[in-house]
Design goal:
This protein has 633 residues and is of the alpha+beta class. It has 4 domains: 1-35; 49-174, 3-Layer(aba) Sandwich (Glutaredoxin), CATH 3.40.30; 180-272 and 284-427 and 446-499, Class I glutamine amidotransferase (GATase) domain (Rossmann fold); 518-604. The protein has 13 helices and 25 strands. The longest helix has 67 residues, at 566-632.
């Protein structure tokens, strides 16, 4: 066979291989359309089971409009990378919804109809860097009756809650009816006539905010059943509830109902009678508990103990109007909130006053996940120390930090048993011999929760009061609320989260799309530790030299002479030389840090650029050698 013929055959073969490759790709795109495999470590592109269930239950189509300024952000690769992450998540929602979600990706160019439409939806155009035009990266959604929901802007720092935010928007559009919240409160939050001042008291701001989002229904504190349309109980300061009421709450929660519960060892907003008390004494707050239910659910809460905290203590005005830190008034900052729970992940500070703490019993059937905790510089004190406390500074006397963080608020979940194992209270007497509830005549009694219960329990009631988190001012007849703490946001987040479906509650924070260089961070931490150690050595040498110089000066007979002795000068010279040596070592440690990182980068470059191609080349050469050998044979 001639050389030209061989070349012609080789060219023909390459052409046929190329055509076959294109055909194979086209066929595979059709045959395997919709097939996905998620190889990321944390399953970043795999929807949670809660989201899948939520999307499977959508009855009418939902339209999603993802507005992203694609052209305007060509010079911002970091933002574009996250925008692509959002788009892929939305496409995963669309694929999983089986036609019930219709997604449109829109680039709102400046002065275009798309930009006007984005502004009408309420999406935020953010001015970034030196870009002349605002950048859009938000989501708008509509349902079949033109209800609208929006995510104004996808913040990259909230990436862990990306799936939850989208799922919440879709769930709200798929279920537009407002949830009914049953309020069970031992104090008046809704406002009423005050006979002492002869004026109407305004509703608490947190109650007003909840009323704007939900249908509030006051159940009182005496009832024996809860309507089927109530999806959530908001229990505040429960005191001396009857067994019938406790049983109704117990069965509601075991049947799948949610509850947001506020109890308190000393609730200042619910003072006891001042009759017989010394004049001028501040009122003593009443305590509250749900001990019968908590005992059955494995939750320990003492109405006789208060958490005092030296680190989180707030500053208030003392007896002589001078500021004093009140160890019972706590400002729980972000460092002591759960960063993995949607309720607290985006809050700044939550103020509490004379709060109690929660903990699980040894045999608790419940899972208790902390939302708010004290610092390790906290101590448990008797609630009586906070009764008629004229001087908050006295709490500092004898204070000893326990070194353990206490749970101030928690999410409680799991399969919970009934606090009434023998059935309704009226039947418990007749079935005290241990017979089952059915024998007592109530076959509808639930002895255990039908699924995983969902509760949020907070050990403080005062945090709901206006004075701890919001300042209300009258402006031309309108009430303007200026918040200085996140108490209201905590409550609204909790109500929104619990009033959603169980599937939505199960969609919690996920891993971040960004992956840190853990090896580099480990090198950096090790180098910084060595740097600090060497620096501390230098400081010790400096302190020792100053001490030595002081001793030499005090030992001199001519102490008034400011001139240095030969011994003192030698000591100084020795230290100067040693300080130069230690600083040289410090610089060497810092250079070592950079060298270690550069060395790691060089190794990775060699592997990616040299080793992998070399291995592929060797593999191809071996394959060619084996083929030629077989042809010769």
């Amino acid at each position: 066979m001639s050389t030209k013929t061989q070349q012609r055959l080789s060219a023909t073969s390459l052409t046929l291989i190329g055509v076959a490759f294109v055909i194979a790709v086209s066929i595979s795109n059709q045959l395997f359309k919709g097939w996905r495999i998620d190889l990321t470590e944390n399953g970043l592109y795999t929807l949670s089971d809660g989201t899948r269930n939520l999307l499977a239950n959508i009855e009418e189509p939902v339209n999603l409009y993802y507005y992203f300024s694609d052209q305007a952000t060509e010079s911002m690769p970091g933002l574009r990378s996250y925008a692509e992450r959002v788009r892929e998540m939305l496409e995963e929602f669309e694929s999983e919804a089986r036609g019930n979600i219709r997604l449109q990706v829109i680039d709102p160019l400046p002065f275009s109809e798309e930009e006007d439409r984005a502004a009408q939806f309420g999406l935020q155009g953010v001015q970034l860097g030196t870009l002349p035009d605002p950048v859009y990266m938000g989501l708008a959604g509509t349902d079949s009756v033109d209800n609208e929901e929006v995510i104004p802007f996808f913040q990259p720092d909230k990436e862990a809650f990306l799936e939850y935010d989208i799922a919440k928007l879709v769930n709200t559009l798929a279920n537009p009816d407002r949830s009914v919240i049953g309020l069970v409160s031992g104090i008046d939050m809704a406002g009423s006539f005050n006979p002492q001042t002869q004026q109407m008291q305004q509703p608490w701001v947190v109650y007003q905010q909840a009323g704007q989002l939900f249908e509030m229904r006051n159940l009182g504190t005496t009832f024996d059943e809860i309507a089927d349309d109530v999806s959530l109980l908001w229990i505040v300061q429960p005191k001396s509830l009857s067994n019938d009421t406790l049983y109704a709450i117990d069965q509601f929660i075991l049947g799948g109902g949610k509850a947001l519960i506020f109890v308190d060892p000393v609730a200042d907003v619910d003072p006891m009678s001042m009759e017989g008390m010394p004049q001028g004494m501040p009122p003593m707050g009443q305590g509250s508990n749900l001990q019968a239910l908590f005992d059955a659910w494995g939750i320990e809460f003492s109405a006789e103990e208060v958490v005092a905290d030296a680190q989180l203590a707030l500053q208030i005005s003392g007896m002589d109007r001078r500021p004093v830190r009140h160890y019972g008034y706590l400002g729980v900052d972000a460092a002591h909130m759960s960063a993995d729970d949607i309720i607290t992940a985006d809050l700044n500070v939550v103020h509490l006053a004379v709060a109690g703490f929660l903990q699980a019993t040894d045999d608790s059937p419940a899972t208790i996940e902390p939302l708010l905790t004290s610092s390790s510089a906290s101590q448990v004190m008797a609630a009586t120390r906070f009764s008629y406390l004229p001087d908050p500074g006295s709490l500092q006397t004898g204070f000893v930090a326990g070194g353990e963080e206490k749970i101030l608020a928690a999410r409680v979940s799991g399969s919970l048993p009934s606090a009434f194992p023998n059935g309704p209270p009226a039947a418990s007497v007749s079935s005290a011999d241990g017979d089952d509830p059915a024998a007592a005549g109530d076959a509808s009694h639930l002895s255990r929760s039908t699924g995983s219960a969902n509760l949020i329990v907070v050990g403080d009631v005062d945090m709901l009061a206006d004075h701890l988190w919001v300042q209300v001012q009258s402006f031309f007849g309108q009430q303007i609320a200026n918040t200085f703490a996140s108490n209201g946001a905590f409550v609204v987040n909790a109500l929104e989260n619990l009033s959603g479906s169980s599937d939505l509650i199960g969609v919690r924070s996920r891993a971040s799309f960004t992956r840190p260089f853990t090896r580099v961070e480990a090198i950096r931490v090790d180098a910084e530790a060595r740097f600090r150690e060497t620096e501390e050595q230098l400081q010790r040498e400096l302190d020792e030299t100053e001490r030595r110089l002081g001793e030499l000066q005090s030992a001199r007979e001519d102490s008034g002479n400011i001139l240095l002795t030969a011994e003192q000068q030698n000591e100084i010279d020795r230290f100067v030389d040693q300080r130069a040596s230690i600083r040289t070592e410090l610089r060497a440690v810092q250079r070592g840090l950079d060298e270690d990182i550069e060395r790691l980068g060089t190794v990775l470059k060699i592997i990616n650029i040299g080793l992998v191609p070399a291995l592929l080349t060797i593999f191809v050469l071996i394959a060619l050698w084996r083929r030629n050998r077989s042809e010769r044979a």
